[in-house]
Amino acid sequence: MRKVFSMAALMLFMQSAMAMAASGLVSYNRQDVTFKYGKTQENVTCIQDATDDKQWYYVSNKPRLAETKNGDPMMMLVSWQKNTSKGIKNDGGILQCGINLTLPADAIPTLRRELARTAGVSESKIKLGPLDMKNAKIMVYAPGGELLGDNLTSPEIGPSFANECIPIQMNLNNLGVPVTEALLKGEGGLQVIYVFDYEALTPEYSCKVTASYDEAFKHFSTDSKTSVSVKKWWLVGGSADVNYSSIREEFTQKNILKIESIGGEKLTDEQIDKLTQPVVEKLMKGLYDVKTPPKVEPAKAGDPSKSSGSWVNVSTSLSIKDIKTRQTGEFVYDFRKRYIETRKSTVGGIISLGGYTKAQREAAVQTIDPTYWKQAFYSLPTISKSLSGIDEMTVTVNFLYKGKQAEGTEQQLAKWTKKEGWVDAKKEECIGLQFPLKYFYDKYSKSSSRFADDITYEQNFEVTYMEGNNTKVKKFKTTVPAFTGDIPISTPMVGVTYIEVVADEDSLTWDKGEYSGGEFDGLKSNLTKIGVKMESTNPKNSGNVTLTSRHTDAGFWFDNVLDKKTGLYSAPKVKATYTFYNTKLAKAMGTKDSKTIVIEKEDAIGEGPSITFIDDDYMPVDKPASYK
User: Fold this and answer.
1) Residue pLDDT, tens place only, 374-412
2) 478: which of 289, 306, 469, 495 fits an S-S bond (Cβ 3.0–4.6 Å)?
3) Under a CB-based contact definition with an 8 Å cutoff, are residues 329 and 211 in contact?
4) Closest Cα partner for 555 from 473, 491, 492?
C-alpha cells in the first residue's frame, strides 16, 4: 500500500487540475530535459511510470504564480510596519498566494519531442502527465535572501499534482518596507523554495540488499566529499549532476551496502545503481533531518522567467539526527518483492508581480495597522480536483463572540464542486470568507485580555462523496479559533480526518488478468474485489467499502478527538481490515478460509491518509508450490 502522511496546514487557493495521470507511482528512471520556449529556457524533470513504459510525469524546476479565471495574480500580501509606541516591535505580514509548476499548454508538444530525443524513443510512444506530489514544505525568502517565513503545506483533502496550484498562507516575519515597495512597483520578487515528496516503485530483481545505518553514519561523519555528494543527490531526488555510481561503489567498498544475487545472474552496474537508490534514500531518511536554511543566495531578478531554479548549500539544509532519534542497526530489501518508497526533490525560483498592471499589483498588496484589524479571514479548505471520491462540499460559517452569534454579522455560505471550485452565495468565485472585526476591536479589545480567544467560527460542513458504488453524505460541525496567535486566520479542517483508498488498476491484476514479473509472471489472477473496513472507538465511527475494477476509489471520514481542556484536536486511532478476494492464491497460501487473504492494520492513519493497493500488498515473495 502507498503510505503517505500529509500535514494539514493553512491554505487558501486551488486551481483546476489537468487529466489525472496513470498510476502515480514512478520508476527510478528519470530524464532532465532542457528546451527553449519563447525567449526563456525551460528545465524540466521527466520521470517514467513504474508500470507503463509509455507514461511519463513532468515537473518544472521553477514555480510560477497562479492566476484566477480573470488573469489576476493569486496573491495577496497584507503587510504592516513596526510601531514601537504601540508595542509592534517588528515588520510583518500575511502572505496568501498560489504557485504551481505547470508549463504553458503549447509548451507540452516541445517537451514531448525533446523527451523522446533524450530518452531515445519514438515521440508517439510517450504520454505526459503532471507528477503526483506529497508533503511540500514551502520556504519564502526576501530578494536579499533572508527567510521571511516557512510552512508545511499540502492539500487538506486529496493528492496534489505538479500542475495544480500549491496553496500558501503563512505569517511572514521581518517583512520590511522594501519588499512591499518592490512588489508594488513590479521591480522585485519573493524567492520561493519548496521541498516535496513523490512516490517511486522499486525495481524488481532477484537479489537482496543489506544496508547498515551504523556504517553509513560512521562514513558520513568522516568522509566529507562523499557526504556532500550523497546529500545533494538525495535532496533533489536523484540529481543528474551527481555521479551516483561513484556513491554506490563507495558504499559497497565501505560495507554500508551488501548485495546478494539470489538468482545467480550477474547484475550489471546499471541494474545495481537502480536497485540501490531506494536503499540509500532509506538510509538518508533514517540519519538526517531536512532543515530550513536561514538565508539563501539573493534573488537576482524580479522576472520569474529568468529564474533558473536553485537549491541552497546542502551543508545548511541537512542536520544529522540525535543518537536517540536516528536509526541504528541494519535493514534488508528483498527485491523479489517491490517496495513503494518516498523520494524527495526541490524546486526554487522567484514569484513576482512584474508582469501585471499597476491596478493588479496594488490590489494584491495591502498595508494595514496591525493593532486594528478590520477583518477576520476564514480559510476555505483546499480540495484537490484530482480526487475522484468527493462530488461537492458545502460549508456555512457563523462568526461567534463568547459562543454566541456576533452582533452585526451574518452567517456566510460557500460551496465547492469539481467544475467551479469554491463559490459564494452569489455564485461568484470565492477564495475565502471575511468577517467584520472592527466593531469588536472598538468595543472589547482594550477591556478583555483574552479578546482573541473569545472570537471563534462555528462551521457546518456537508460533504457528498462516493464510497464504492454508493453516494454518501457526511455532516460535521466544529468550532475553531478565528485567530492563529495574534492574527485572525482560521484552520477549518482540524476537526476531521479524511482517508482515501485506491485500488490501483495499473498495479493490480483483476479477474482473468496475468501477473507480470517475478515469481508469478504469466500466471492468471482471479482477484475479484477488495473489502476495506475501517473503524475508530474514540470517537466511535466505522465504514465499509468494496473496491472492484470498475469502482477503484473510496473515502472515509473520521471525527478527530477534542481535548476539552486545551481545545486542541488530535487524530483518532483507526483500525483497518483489508480483505483480498483471490481464491486461487488464497488456497495455495493456505489462508484461514482458503478463499480470502486478510491483512489487518491496527493504525491505518499511521500509514497515511492516502492508501493505494498494489499486487505486492498481498502476494508473498515466493510463489506457493501449489499455485498453478
Assistant:
1) 778 787 777 766 665 688 889 999 989 888 888 878 899
2) 495
3) no
4) 473
Q: Where are the alpha helices (DSSP H) in 288-372?
A: 358-364
Residue 96's closest CA among 393, 417, 378, 297?
378
Per-residue pLDDT band at 160 (split at 50, 70, 90)? low
Strands (E) located in 160-311: 160-161, 166-173, 189-201, 207-212, 257-261, 288-290
Band of the pLDDT at 16, cuts 50, 70, 90?
very low
With cell 475508530, the residue in question is: 536
Buried b (16+ CB within 10 A) or exposed e, 423-451: ebeeeeebbbbebebeebeeeeeeeeeeb
The residue written with cell numbers 477564495 in the block is 431
Q: What does the DSSP assignment read for 443-472?
A: IIITT-TTHHHHEEEEEEEEEEEEETTEEE
Question: What CA–CA distances, in Å, run from 375 to 24, 63, 287?
Answer: 41, 30, 45
Let me know: does 92 contact 174? Beta carbons within 8 Å.
yes
Residue 79, all three cell numbers: 503587510
CB 235 within 8 A of CB 316: no
Residue 302 contacts residue 361 (beta carbons within 8 Å): no
Distances (CA, A) of 266 to 208, 269, 311, 586: 13, 10, 38, 34
Mapping DSSP onto H, E and C, the string for 55-119 reads EEEEEECCCEECECCCCCECEEEEEECCEHHHCECCCEEEEEEEEECCCCHHHHHHHHHHHHHHH
Prediction pTM value: 0.73
Closest CA to 272 of 344, 340, 342, 205: 205
- Alpha-carbon distance of 598 to 177, in angstroms, equals 61
Rounded Cα distance between 106 and 68, Å, is 19
Report the distance separating Cα 58 and Cα 104, nearest Å: 13
CA 452 from centre of chain: 31
